[in-house]
Amino acid sequence: MGSCITFKVVHFITILLVVPVVGVFWGSWLGLSRSITSFSAETFLNIGHAMIANLALVMSILMPLAVLSTAVVLFLMYRQRASRLLRDTYRIPAPGDRDSHNSSYRSPYRQSD
Fold first, then answer.
1. How far apart are CA 70 and CA 75, in angstroms?
2. Number of structural domains, the chain?
């Protein structure tokens, strides 16, 4: 149960970190792409330099945190899937299942009677 809560918390934090990163890239493109032809090259470069200067500190912190958090979520998902695969393969009851002490459970290594 604790690993499920940990996964949900880490997943939520990852979403909170990734959404602003995507928003910065997609929002900048969306905001400028429709009117790019109406700007002179000099004006467009000035806008781009101002955006880079304003976002440099924030994105240099936010992007690595988002990537690291995504890597943690992927690791937890892999570990969760691997343990579920092992449980399903060997028919091992999951911890906390009501039927975990069920007498009908038979080990795959036990000789049939």
1. 9
2. 1
